[in-house]
Amino acid sequence: MHPRSSSAPRRPAGPYAPRDGRRLLVVSASMGAGHDTVADELVRRARERGDDAFVVDVLALLPCGLGGALRHFYRGSVRHFPWAYAALYRLFLRPGAGHRPGATPLARLAGGRLRELAERTGADVVVPVFHLGAQLTGHLRARGRLSVPSVVLVIDFAVHRQWLHPGNDHCLCLTEDAAREVRESTGTSAWTCGPVVAPEFFAESPDAPGAAGWRGLFDRLGPGRPAVVLSAGAWGVGSRLNATVRLLTDHGLLPVALCGDNERLRRELSGTPGVLALGWVTDMPGLMHAARALVDNAAGQTAVQALAAGLPVVGYRPIPGHGADGVRRMAALGVSDVAEDETALLGALRRLTAPGPARRERIAAGHALFREDAMTRVASVADARRARR
User: Fold this and answer.
1) Angle at CA 128, nearest 5°, toward 126 and 134?
2) What pLDDT digit, counting tens, does each position of 322-350 carry?
3) Residue 296: which H helix or E strand, with range?
């Protein structure tokens, strides 16, 4: 079982607010690590304001082990049968006209538990950061079964249809284009806040904590070779990663492969000379401040952390479904490149790892995404609810 798969709300470690502060219930999901990373940063920001927050895994709210089965199916399909996930994405998630099956019937199964948690924690607002949670809160709010407002934090660049439910009170989106899509699709109030990333990633100094140690390691492994981070997500998922690291080493780069919890992948990539293959990394801010670029395949939390850290991003061989759509959407926004083949990948990396205007412009475009603190909007909704009581 995933270590966070508990139906009890967790109050992450650290100081918390007195009982008269605002209270948030964040609905996350143990699908990789990105959703929980966003949830934990919302908790940190809430406490910084003198508020309190709890996090619950929506998969753990589902009965009869359905949440665990759903997680294992998704993980297995993206690792071993990506064509199957691509088909499911087209059927259930990809935006488009016409009626298609949705996740609301599944989400309904968790309704009673979420209502009970909202009451028990005294929540002033519920904040889903996973699309199944958004379906759940939208369903409950539309039927008057959840007494507190819901603010959906859409953490994807490409807003697929399962993020959308007209019953939710508000949505927070990464970009104005995404917010416009939400308003046009559902009529829901939608604001732009930019990605939610921990403050450590924004350090301006090249000597940010941890960076010097990483830089020394890179110099020992490959003197004079620009370090390029290759992300495979928390689950170590990707297409032809062996070929990609060989390509980078053959052309004078130092690939730093993030394999997550996929120990088999880490062992395989470690067998390639000139590659630094890592498992779970706790000092991502230091690593990103020491590297020169990120090769990304999902447009997820690692990608937005890189944008915050001033690390240029190149999308390459994205995972199917939301990964491919997100990588293309990022490139269309001008905050990243997308490479369709090896030649394009090498060209983008040469341009973006070298000092010069191309690198500076790309870093500035990425930083411009971080427009507003999502907690400002969430707090305003909580305050409006408390004022009505």
Assistant:
1) 110
2) 889 999 999 999 999 999 999 999 999 99
3) strand 293-296
Residue 344 structure tokens: 């394009």
| Beta carbons within 10 angstroms of residue 11's beta carbon | 14
List the domains of the chain with CATH numbers: 23-196+371-388 (3.40.50.2000), 199-367 (3.40.50.2000)
Integer Cα distance of 145 and 139 in angstroms: 8
Q: Is the pTM of this model over 0.85?
A: yes
Q: What is the pLDDT of residue 2?
A: 38
- Residues of the chain where predicted confidence (pLDDT) is lower than 70: 1-19, 94-104, 204-207
Taking Cα atoms as reference points, which of 345, 354, 327, 315 lies closest to residue 247? 345
Residue 240: the pLDDT is: 92
Nearest CA-CA partner of 375 in 187, 194, 204, 201: 194
Report which DSSP code applies to 150. B
What distance in Å separates the CA atoms of residue 358 and residue 352, rounded to the nearest whole number? 6
C-alpha separations of 338 from 82, 233, 241, 249, 318 in Å: 20, 18, 16, 20, 9
Backbone angles phi, psi at 255, to 5 degrees: -75, 130
- Render pLDDT for 99-139 as a digit per residue (tens, 0 to 9): 545 556 777 888 899 999 999 999 999 999 999 999 999 99
Pairing of strands 254-258, 227-231: parallel
Q: 258 pairs with which residues across the strands?
A: 231, 278
Who's near 133: CB < 8 A, 6+ residues apart? 27, 28, 29, 58, 107, 152
Nearest to 190 by CA among 198, 182, 202: 182
272-275 long-range contacts, Cβ below 8 Å, gap at least 24? 272/242, 272/245, 272/246, 273/249, 274/221, 274/222, 274/225, 274/249, 275/245, 275/249
